[in-house]
């Protein structure tokens, strides 16, 4: 048993992804006049590299300038004969380079994207020698564009919202920005194919119509080039949805390859109606190889493509088990998963990290495409969503992707707009909140007047005074939400005073009547399905422990026995999650 | 991947690596499952002319020569049309110099008439050493020069190149801005990519940007004999037997004796390859995608047990071993798809030792030796044998080095008689 824990721990410690990435850090240096898409490319590239597991950070020199020169007056700041301004700008660039150095040496960064105009050979030479001195590789990305429409569109989309122009009217801002560009144009020296032949760079012409690539040095630069050559700025939307509710979903079982439940089928039809209503031109539909996504897509009545890479995460030995069964039969695995859900790999299965690796070609193709509807699975959708919304690895496995909800992603400016569409077909909730951080619930069964051993989730109650009720303290304690989120369960309808013993002390609760009736042991172990529908969805709580004790009037109460769950002393976060509403 | 077929057209003076690129690209595309064929116009010319006399044939004022060459190009285009429209081809690589705008215009019109997409691949190189090396490697062995001695052949070939040089119109950034192309300059130092239209062109560009011609060797071998091997069971994740460990030691000695500079070592994430690599005492990298084919429900079973418990599956597998997918497992076809990043990285790297598994090694070998999907699952990859692959001319030289440590034989030959199930049965069982 413990051998498996050790192995699992070491798996967590080492990066399991094939890592042919460079040993020396890489600086990606943007080059180009203002409004050529440098920051757009920088942000997108940073997002992509972080998603595939390469720690990357963006350094925007404009930000440094805004911090140094609090208020932006006008384009005169950028005139080449403005000595004072030149000094400030040089200082900002140096400060940014210094931060790049700190990022690589102290924060274990792998790639830094240096986002500035870098339009003169002199500036680029400074960066090159800086990098050479420190042992960093340099890769230049130059964006060249002379199409006035594209430039005007850029300016509208991103510059007007910039802090520099926050109090200006649009025409003023446009004119000022155009003058700003002129300041740079006079001294702009594009990367020269002859003089700069020893440099590694990619030149992007006219938003990707043409590319010139010189001296790609290593794997990461090759991947960057491939990525840059696949992205585009044509307006479009990506629709992400899970399959309709499946038979195994209803049984609370994970994985497998079951078909749709009747409600799932209803969802498929609703999805078809929704898609038609969106009036999307040339929509591509992608599914996985699993029945439930295929059946969902079938209802749309349009051609669709099956991708094996979109299959749900492989739960290995845990396939088709319920979370309760996993906790019972494989408690160590269950605990390990909660410790690091992103890197944890099911025995003979996969981790979220593996999933990201296999979804990379899907992301690349999504970048190339225009309007796409992806019908997939919970873990897969979380990975895709994390890419588009730039969520880090520790948030990814806890993103909310409920059944029967379509997420419409529309790229705008530097990010992505998300619109959720719940298609009004009920479904079970398959979301498990991050343990120890949700609103907590104690479910217990107690005999009248019996004090139970206290069990709680992590970081919950401390410093209670004798007279307070538990629930008062819950309201006061900012770590957890107050009383509405505590659901009491018992098998005794007549139990009036419920006691919760926490940390050895006894407290009364304010709620008198239990909300969930548990009569038999199987009901208790199937706790999730017992939560009434009207108090489920969107809120979460943890079931900490369930006790059973016999109550006989006029006889001493029996010591309650632990029927299901784990006390805090053994595993800190062995909890089950359900969902519950405010009320 | 594509709806309309794609015509890849090479452009460049002789000895610029056009045929090398064509063959490599064709091999790669076929391996990833895109039916591709190359059409080398020089071949057509050789069939037409039977005997090659001298470079005079290629002189621009040789009317007779020009007529024949035009005919050959037309014949080749005709075959391209047949391949792409009637024979289920997806991509055709039209390998010729295509150095004049006029010739390229003809091809573009041909493609437009037939509904093909066109993608040009131009190779530009002025480095005399590289050109010399090319000529020595591939031209001297060509049927054109079988009866010449080396100096004569080189001299004639250089004159041949001269014949093309005067009328050479390279792809122009302005004049040809509406065409889709990649210009490869100086064997991959620099690339100019214009108007990539679709997924397959994007993959082709990515591939071309990752290949190189630096001399190097790739060593492929399986893990040492494992516990489950000895029991005759497939799959699983067992450790090495004593004989397997012995192989690890012998492998270490062998690798040292090869004196390879900067060798990268890759393994899968399964115990048996990792234990084998450990014996080398050098840093190694673990790739999950190098894991053995997942036999699903048949994991850790013996072939006899599979035949007993899943006789239908067993028969189906013999029907079409390449496409057959174990229930809850994988097929060789799936394996090829997941090995594609390995191949791409192998192309980028120089000296590499890959310690993997039987099915995985078969897939990698099929890529390097251009084996078809039918042959792939039956390639011989015995335990305790290292295959050294050295790219040479248009292909790959293979040296098989048996390290003289006994092991069980895990190879199953293609069965002689196979019962006649239709493919439909296979699908309904999945």
UniProtKB/TrEMBL annotation, chain A:
GO terms for cellular component: 6-phosphofructo-2-kinase/fructose-2,6-biphosphatase complex. The keyword ATP-binding applies. The keyword Endoplasmic reticulum does not apply. Pfam families: 6PF2K, His_Phos_1. Substrate binds at residues 242-249, 292. PROSITE patterns: PG_MUTASE. Residues 16-235 form the 6-phosphofructo-2-kinase domain. It comes from the Eukaryota. Keywords: ATP-binding, Hydrolase, Kinase, Multifunctional enzyme, Nucleotide-binding, Phosphoprotein, Transferase. The active site is at 243 (tele-phosphohistidine intermediate), 312 (proton donor/acceptor). In the C-terminal section; belongs to the phosphoglycerate mutase family. Synthesis and degradation of fructose 2,6-bisphosphate. Homodimer. This is 6-phosphofructo-2-kinase/fructose-2,6-biphosphatase 1.
Automatic annotation (TrEMBL), chain B:
GO terms for cellular component: cytosol. The active site is at residues 223, 292. Substrate binds at residues 222-229, 272. Keywords: ATP-binding, Hydrolase, Kinase, Multifunctional enzyme, Nucleotide-binding, Phosphoprotein, Transferase. Residues 2-215 form the 6-phosphofructo-2-kinase domain. GO terms for biological process: fructose 2,6-bisphosphate metabolic process; fructose metabolic process. GO terms for molecular function: 6-phosphofructo-2-kinase activity; ATP binding; fructose-2,6-bisphosphate 2-phosphatase activity. In the C-terminal section; belongs to the phosphoglycerate mutase family. PANTHER family: 6-PHOSPHOFRUCTO-2-KINASE/FRUCTOSE-2,6-BISPHOSPHATASE, 6-PHOSPHOFRUCTO-2-KINASE_FRUCTOSE-2,6-BISPHOSPHATASE 4. This is 6-phosphofructo-2-kinase/fructose-2,6-biphosphatase 4a. It comes from Sparus aurata. The gene is LOC115583755.
């Amino acid at each position: 048993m413990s051998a498996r824990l050790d192995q699992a721990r070491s798996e967590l410690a080492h990066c399991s992804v094939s890592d042919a990435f460079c040993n020396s850090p890489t600086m990606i240096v943007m080059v180009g006049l203002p409004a050529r898409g440098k920051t757009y490319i920088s942000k997108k590239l940073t997002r992509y590299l972080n998603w595939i597991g390469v720690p990357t950070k963006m350094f925007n020199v404009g930000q440094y300038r805004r911090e140094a020169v609090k208020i932006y007056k006008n384009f005169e700041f950028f005139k080449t004969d403005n000595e004072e301004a030149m000094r400030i700008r040089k200082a900002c660039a140096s400060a940014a380079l210094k931060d790049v150095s700190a990022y690589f040496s102290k924060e274990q960064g792998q790639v830094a994207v240096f986002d500035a105009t870098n339009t003169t050979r002199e500036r680029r030479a400074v960066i090159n020698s800086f990098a050479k001195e420190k042992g960093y590789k340099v890769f230049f990305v130059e964006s060249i564009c002379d199409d006035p429409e594209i430039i005007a569109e850029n300016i509208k989309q991103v510059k007007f919202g910039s802090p520099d122009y926050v109090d200006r009217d649009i025409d003023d801002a446009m004119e000022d920005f155009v003058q700003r560009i002129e300041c740079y144009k006079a001294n702009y020296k594009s990367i020269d194919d002859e003089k700069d032949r020893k440099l590694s760079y990619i030149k992007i012409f006219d938003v990707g119509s043409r590319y010139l690539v010189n001296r790609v040095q290593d794997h990461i630069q090759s991947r960057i080039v491939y990525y840059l050559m696949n992205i585009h700025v044509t307006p479009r939307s990506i629709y992400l949805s899970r399959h309709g509710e499946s038979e195994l979903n209803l049984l609370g079982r994970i994985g497998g390859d079951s078909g749709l439940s009747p409600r799932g089928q209803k969802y498929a039809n609703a999805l078809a109606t929704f898609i038609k209503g969106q009036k999307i031109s040339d929509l591509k539909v992608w599914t996985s190889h699993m029945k439930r996504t295929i059946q969902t897509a079938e209802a749309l009545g349009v051609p669709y493509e099956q991708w094996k890479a979109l299959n749900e995460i492989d739960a290995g030995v845990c396939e088709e088990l319920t979370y309760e069964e996993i906790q019972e039969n494989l408690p160590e695995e269950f605990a390990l998963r909660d410790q690091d859900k992103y890197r944890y790999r099911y025995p003979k299965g996969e981790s979220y990290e593996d999933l990201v690796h296999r979804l990379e070609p899907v992301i690349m193709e999504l970048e190339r495409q225009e309007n796409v509807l992806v019908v997939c699975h919970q873990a897969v959708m979380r990975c895709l969503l994390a890419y588009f919304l730039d969520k880090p690895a520790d948030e990814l496995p806890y993103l909310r992707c409920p059944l029967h909800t379509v997420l419409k992603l529309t790229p705008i400016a530097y990010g992505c707009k998300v619109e959720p569409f719940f298609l009004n077909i009920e479904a079970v909730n398959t979301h498990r909140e991050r343990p120890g951080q949700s609103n907590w619930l104690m479910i217990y069964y107690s005999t009248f007047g019996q004090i139970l051993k206290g069990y709680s989730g992590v970081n919950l109650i401390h410093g209670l005074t004798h007279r307070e009720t538990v629930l008062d303290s819950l309201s006061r304690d900012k770590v957890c939400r107050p009383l509405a989120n505590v659901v009491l369960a018992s098998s005794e309808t007549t139990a009036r005073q419920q006691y919760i013993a926490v940390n050895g002390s006894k407290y009364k609760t304010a709620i008198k009547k239990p909300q969930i009736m548990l009569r038999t042991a199987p009901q208790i172990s199937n706790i999730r399905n017992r939560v009434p529908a009207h108090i489920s969805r969107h809120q979460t709580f943890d079931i900490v422990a369930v006790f059973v004790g016999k109550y006989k009037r006029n006889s001493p109460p029996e010591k309650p026995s632990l029927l299901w769950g784990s006390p805090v002393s053994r595993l800190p976060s062995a909890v089950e999650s359900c969902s519950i509403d405010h009320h | 991947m594509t709806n309309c077929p794609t015509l890849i057209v090479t452009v460049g003076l002789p000895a610029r690596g056009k045929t090398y690129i064509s063959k490599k690209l064709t091999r790669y595309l076929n391996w990833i499952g895109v039916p591709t064929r190359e059409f080398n116009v020089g071949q057509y010319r050789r069939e037409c002319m039977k005997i090659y006399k001298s470079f005079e044939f290629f002189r621009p004022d040789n009317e007779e020569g020009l007529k024949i060459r035009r005919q050959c190009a037309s014949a080749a285009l005709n075959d391209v049309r047949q391949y792409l429209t009637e024979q289920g081809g997806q991509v055709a690589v039209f390998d010729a110099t295509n150095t004049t705008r006029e010739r390229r215009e003809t091809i573009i019109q041909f493609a437009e008439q037939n509904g093909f997409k066109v993608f040009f691949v131009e190779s530009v190189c002025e480095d005399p050493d590289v050109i010399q090396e090319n000529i020595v490697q591939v031209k001297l062995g060509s049927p054109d020069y079988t009866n010449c001695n080396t100096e004569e052949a080189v001299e004639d070939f250089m004159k041949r190149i001269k014949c093309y040089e005067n009328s050479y119109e390279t792809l122009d950034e302005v004049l040809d801005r509406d065409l889709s192309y990649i210009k490869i300059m100086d064997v991959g130092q620099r690339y100019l990519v214009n108007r990539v239209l679709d997924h397959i062109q994007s993959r082709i560009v990515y591939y071309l940007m990752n290949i190189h011609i630096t001399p190097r060797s790739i060593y492929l071998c399986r893990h040492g004999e494992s516990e489950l091997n000895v029991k005759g069971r497939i799959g699983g994740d067992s450790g090495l037997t004593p004989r397997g460990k012995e192989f690890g030691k012998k492998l270490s000695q062998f690798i040292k004796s090869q004196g390879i500079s900067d060798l990268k070592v890759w393994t899968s994430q399964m115990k048996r390859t990792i234990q084998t690599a450990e014996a080398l005492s050098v840093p190694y990298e673990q790739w999950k995608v190098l894991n053995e084919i997942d036999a699903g429900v048949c994991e850790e079973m013996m072939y006899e047990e599979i035949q007993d418990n899943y006789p239908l599956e067993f028969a189906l597998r013999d029907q079409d071993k390449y496409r057959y997918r174990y229930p809850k497992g994988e097929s060789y076809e799936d394996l090829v798809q997941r090995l594609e990043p390995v191949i791409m990285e192998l192309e980028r790297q120089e000296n590499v030792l890959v310690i993997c598994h039987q099915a995985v090694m078969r897939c990698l070998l099929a890529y390097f030796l251009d084996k078809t999907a039918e042959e792939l699952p039956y390639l011989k990859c015995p335990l305790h044998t290292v295959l050294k692959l050295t790219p040479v001319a248009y292909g790959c030289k293979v040296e098989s080095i048996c390290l003289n440590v006994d092991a069980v034989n895990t190879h199953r030959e293609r069965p002689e008689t196979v019962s006649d199930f239709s493919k439909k049965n296979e699908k309904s069982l999945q």
